[in-house]
């Protein structure tokens, strides 16, 4: 079984001591840092924006993986590039001109990801899969950490894997929401390359140990 990329989600960090949590991630076996941006319109929650992301990316030694849960992401792609995003993922449900949005992200020098809400079919990616670097399969409804993994996601991961293989795309599959020690192995077996984990990591007694356990337990 392949070793997955682990992307702890900053959403569950202690925001009063955010630097300590970034240090912990820097010194852990995490590969990426997942940064969840919410606008109160695309999702019913508001998280954090440019001041926090710029401060974090200056000290973060991992890949800065920014997940935009916002309307009109094209308005802000350049600002996210300047804030230090390495991977920028937009929701297919928020993009009227997805192809143009993906080109914009790549032109700005970032890797481009497309996220699918739980109700969105993988087949919607058919005409964009060759152009993207990442498929983010939401395994909860976006907006909040600490929710339960939706079981139907396993089938969507398998479908995404089949689409990627059939198209010759090199896109990675990232799974986001409700990832735990109980399901991480099955998620990777279904075809996931990247596991996002917020609550599982930051509610652990030793978050760095939990990152290692997710990486090698999967
Ligand atoms: C949810 C976010 C997730 C969230 C995952 O809208 O996209 O990245 O932080 O949190 P857990 O791992 O707690 O489900
Ligand atoms: Zn996320």
TrEMBL record:
Its EC number is 5.1.3.1. The keyword Isomerase applies. One of its GO terms (molecular function) is D-ribulose-phosphate 3-epimerase activity. It catalyses: D-ribulose 5-phosphate = D-xylulose 5-phosphate. Substrate binds at residues 9, 67, 143-146, 176-178. Transmembrane segments: none annotated. Binds 1 divalent metal cation per subunit. Its cofactor is a divalent metal cation; Fe(2+); Co(2+); Zn(2+). InterPro entries: Aldolase_TIM (IPR013785), Ribul_P_3_epim (IPR026019), Ribul_P_3_epim-like (IPR000056), RibuloseP-bd_barrel (IPR011060). Pathway: Carbohydrate degradation. A divalent metal cation binds at residues 34, 36, 67, 176. The active site is at 36 (proton acceptor), 176 (proton donor). Keywords: Carbohydrate metabolism, Isomerase, Metal-binding. Belongs to the ribulose-phosphate 3-epimerase family. Catalyzes the reversible epimerization of D-ribulose 5-phosphate to D-xylulose 5-phosphate. HAMAP family: RPE. This is Ribulose-phosphate 3-epimerase. It comes from Chitinophaga chungangae. The gene is rpe.
